[in-house]
Design brief:
This protein has helices at about 10-20, 30-35, 40-50, 60-70, 85-95, 105-115, 140-150, 170-185, 200-205, and strands spanning about 1-5, 25-30, 55, 75-80, 95-100, 120-125, 155-160, 195-200, 215, 235-240, 245-250, 255, 260, 265-270, 310, 315-320, 330, 340-345, 355-360. By secondary structure, it is an alpha/beta fold. It has two domains: about 10-220, Alpha-Beta Barrel (TIM Barrel); about 235-360, Lyase, Ornithine Decarboxylase, Chain A, domain 1 (Beta Barrel), CATH 2.40.37.10.
Length: about 350
C-alpha cells in the first residue's frame, strides 16, 4: 500500500495566505505539472470550490481536459506561445486566453481566428530573464504591431514570469522592466489591460506595487523558496506500508551494484517505492542536509549523496543502500515495527509519480 496524502486544510490555508498577499489582484492558479503534483482535475475542483475562476496551463491537452470535465466558465490562460496549427485549433476549441510571445505567434493566431470568423483573446508575454517565451521589454514596437495589425485578436493584458526566485533585487529589476514596457505602450495610447508580473516566489518575497493579477502555483503546496515566516504550509506526505520485515545479520550486503555491507545485526523493512516514483529526487534549487554514505575522505567531502529520512512510528528510519527503481530498504531497528505499519516521508508532490493521491481533511 502506498499513497500521496494531500492535506486539504493545508491547501486552503495556503490559498488564504495567497489571498492576503494578493489583495484585490485576480489570482491565476497555475495548474502546470499535473496541478502542482496534486492532480490537474483534483486541484482544479478544489480551487473551484474555493471560488477561484482563473487558471493557467502549460499543455494543450490540459486545457482541453478541463473543458471536457465541466470547467466551462473558468478563464484558462495558456502559458506557452504557440504557432503549431493543430495546437492552435485545439486551444481555440477550448476557448483559452492565448499567449503571444512573438510576432509569428500573432500572425498564426490572427490567421486562424480569421478563418473561423471569430476574435481570439490573448495576452502578450514579456521575457524579463527566463529566455523561454516572450518579447524583450525593449521590443515595444513589435508589441504595437500586435495591437494595430491583428484585427482578429483582442489583447486583454500583459504578463511576465520573473526569472529570479532567490535574489530580491533581481526580481525587483525584472518587475520594473516589465512595468517600463507597459508604460511605454500606454504612452502610445494602448489599453494594456491586465498586468501580471508576480509568481509565487515574487508574491511572498517582497512588495512590488499593485498588480491586476498574480500567477501562483508552488505557493498552493507551500513550496516557495522564501525564508521562514511566509505563513505557508508544506503539502505532501508519502505513506508506504512495510511490505517485509526481517532481521539481517552483520556482514549482509544490501543494494544493487556495490551496495553496502551491514556492520551489525539490523531490522529492515522493504517498501514498494523507488526512484521511479520520485524518491530521492531533487529540484535544481533544493537545499538539503546531505548524508554521508560510508567513510568519505575529506577531499571528497563535497561529493555527498542525498538520502531521504523516513519516519516509522514517529522515529527516523534511514535508507540502506541505493534506492531501487521500485523498491527500497529501511533500517527500522529502533522503530519497533509491526506488520501493517507504514513509513512516511514529507515530499514535494511535483516530484512524485505512480502513486495514488488521497485528499485528507
Amino acid at each position: 500500500m502506498r499513497s500521496l496524502l494531500i492535506d486539504k486544510n493545508a491547501l486552503r490555508a495556503n490559498l488564504n495566505e495567497v489571498r492576503a498577499r494578493a489583495g484585490s489582484a485576480d489570482i491565476v492558479a497555475d495548474l502546470s505539472g499535473d496541478g502542482q503534483g496534486v492532480g490537474l482535475l483534483r486541484m482544479a475542483r478544489f480551487l473551484q470550490e474555493e471560488g477561484l475562476g482563473s487558471f493557467a496551463v502549460s499543455e494543450t491537452q490540459d486545457a482541453a481536459l478541463l473543458r471536457r470535465s465541466g470547467f466551462s466558465e473558468e478563464r484558462i490562460l495558456m502559458l506557452r506561445s504557440v504557432t503549431n496549427p493543430g495546437q492552435l485549433q485545439e486551444l481555440m476549441d477550448a476557448e483559452v486566453i492565448f499567449t503571444l510571445g512573438s510576432y509569428e505567434a500573432g500572425i498564426a493566431l490572427n490567421a486562424l481566428a480569421g478563418e473561423r470568423h471569430t476574435v481570439a483573446e490573448a495576452r502578450i508575454r514579456i521575457d524579463t530573464g527566463l529566455g523561454q517565451y516572450g518579447f524583450l521589454p525593449r521590443e515595444t514596437d513589435k508589441m504595437l504591431t500586435l495591437y494595430r495589425q491583428m484585427p482578429n485578436i483582442a489583447i486583454s493584458g500583459l504578463y511576465t514570469l520573473p526569472a529570479s526566485t532567490n535574489i530580491l533585487s533581481e526580481t525587483q529589476k525584472q518587475v520594473e522592466e516589465f512595468m517600463t514596457a507597459a508604460r511605454a505602450l500606454q504612452e502610445q495610447g494602448v489599453n494594456t489591460g491586465v498586468l501580471m508580473a508576480l509568481d509565487s516566489a515574487a508574491l511572498f518575497r517582497g512588495e512590488f506595487g499593485e498588480q491586476n493579477a498574480v500567477c501562483i502555483g508552488s505557493a498552493l503546496i507551500g513550496r516557495v523558496p522564501v525564508k521562514a515566516g511566509s505563513g505557508l504550509t508544506r503539502v505532501g506526505v508519502l505513506e508506504a506500508s512495510l511490505e517485509e520485515l526481517n532481521w539481517l545479520d552483520k556482514g549482509t550486503k544490501i543494494g544493487a551494484g556495490k551496495g553496502i555491507v551491514l556492520k551489525k545485526t539490523t531490522r529492515v523493512a522493504v517498501l514498494d517505492i523507488g526512484w521511479f516514483n520520485g524518491i530521492g529526487a531533487l529540484r535544481p534549487n533544493d537545499r538539503v542536509e546531505p548524508v554521508l554514505l560510508g567513510k568519505v575522505k575529506s577531499a571528497l567531502a563535497k561529493k555527498t549523496a542525498f538520502s531521504p529520512i523516513f519516519k516509522v512510528n514517529g522515529k527516523r528510519a534511514r535508507v540502506l543502500g541505493q534506492i531501487g527503481m521500485t523498491t527500497l530498504v529501511l533500517d527500522v531497528t529502533r522503530c519497533s515495527p509491526a506488520p501493517g505499519d507504514t513509513a512516511s516521508l514529507e515530499v514535494d508532490p511535483r516530484l512524485i509519480r505512480g502513486v495514488p493521491v488521497k485528499m485528507t481533511e
